[in-house]
Design a protein that fits this description.
mainly alpha; about 80 residues
Length: about 80
Amino acid sequence: MFELVMSTALGAASVALYVQEHRCSRALARFYALPVGSAARRSINEHELRDAYWAQYLVFLIGIGMHTLTLSAFIWMQ
């Protein structure tokens, strides 16, 4: 049962990584489509955009880790 929990957590993490990379690349494409001197492009840079998406992914991983630990503890107590 523990193996099922761990494989599910790893599967969720890998799917989330794929989704975040796709979302980040789409956001970067929209960023590069902005005119070079525009106020919208000056208000944010590429690194801030990437950092925001990776911060979302890390928060998701922390959530997966907490749920995995909780579920593992409940399985262990059975």
